[in-house]
Amino acid sequence: MSIDVMFSQEEISFRNGFRAFLEGLDLSFILRMDKEDEKEFPKDFVRALGQNNYLGIPLPKNVGGRGLNTVCAILAEEELGALAFPLGCAMGMSTYLCRAIYKYGNPELWKKYVVPTMKADLICAEGITEPLKGSDIARLQTVARREGNHYVITGEKRFQKGGIGADWFLTFARTNPDVPPHKGITAFIAERNHGVQVVEQFNLLGWRGMGASHLLFREVAVPEENRVGEEGQGFEILMYLLQTERLMEAATALGSARECLKIAVRYSDAREQFEQKIREFQGINFKVADMAATLDAGRLLCLRAAKLIDQREKRPNREVAMAKFYSTEAAWNIIDQALQILGGIGYTDYYPIERFLRDVRVAKIYTGTNEIMRELTQRGTYDELLKEKPSPAWNLWKGSKNLI
């Protein structure tokens, strides 16, 4: 199950080192995270990552990052996904939020927020989704008005990863209602002690222990220097951070699928029915073949998108969207088929497949539903293919003249 041929020696070495780091941790907290009443964010785990320089893997070293590429970041996410899907999210936030602040913020913000977050001295979260505005991000209703040297933010945010445990939130609010929706949004760093309130802690089907919450901004005064970028630049910043967030989410989901495939393979090689191993039945081994091919296809889509992000020539919106919807749906299907191979025992908590199934289901919803990802993919595909020169044989086909 190796696609190492696609990676550099530096990337392989990093992944192997990260695996060794994880193997040295006490991972029993993963079982506690999945309790139905567990809502606290896994701060101790994030601190261990920060103390070993595993937060902000693709961020520059001068702000506390590791100075590696996005490929290394998604390799780490896949390894965390193989342990527990929420852990990839816990690590990923520091990457995509601080990456946006590094690009659009200033050295003062780097020093105050990015550097301590890389060490896990501070925990970050995002403030994007709202009760009445989910995928329609450009029309968010949280507002920020300027008063002297502060911005006063009023509104609500929902489903924050780490909302209960975070020290600061990269928050998006409308500062100008008189321009097109996507041009009137501004980004801010709002600290919890600025007055951000948790008004609800959500019980979730899966993805527990991530501090998912509903936040209230009631006249929250944020200093002017905590604005990220210029007024009206918020939507651009949001789209920038989402490309990394979506890709990291996709890689994490594939890590969970990889682990479930491994369990299914080992189980089918050990389990016997009708005097033979169940792996001998085509109903089982053809499932394994499809699962393996689907997994690697998703991993290659993620790898392509990561490389394009690192090239920085243009934002690979189409490629990231494609990787996100394909990989998260592939992960869901692989895990579901793994459970089917195990049969009744897979439906119990004797193996972690039922937990992976519950956890990964959310991946098809958040950071942009897979329906939105398909919309972005088709839009980019039309833009790309309509600009391409037809093949040399184009004029041989009678109908081609109608398509030019």
Describe the structure.
- By secondary structure, the chain is of the alpha+beta class.
- It folds into 3 domains: 4-122, Orthogonal Bundle (Butyryl-Coa Dehydrogenase, subunit A, domain 1); 126-234, Beta Barrel (Butyryl-CoA Dehydrogenase, subunit A, domain 2); 237-387, Up-down Bundle (Butyryl-CoA Dehydrogenase, subunit A, domain 3).
- It contains 11 helices and 10 strands.
- It has helices at residues 9-23, 29-33, 43-51, 70-81, 85-104, 107-118, 234-270, 282-311, 317-342, 353-360, 370-387, and strands spanning 124-127, 143-147, 150-160, 168-174, 185-191, 197-201, 213-223, 227-228, 272-273, 276-277.
- The strands form 3 sheets. A 4-stranded mixed β-sheet has the order 1-4-5-8. The chain has a 4-stranded antiparallel β-sheet with strand order 2-3-7-6, with no helix packed on it. Strands 9-10 form a two-stranded antiparallel sheet.
- Helix 4 (70-81) crosses helix 7 (234-270), helix 7 (234-270) runs parallel beside helix 9 (317-342) and helix 8 runs antiparallel to helix 9 (317-342).
- The protein is globular and about 80 Å long.
- The chain starts with 8 loop residues before the first helix and ends in a 17-residue tail after the last helix.
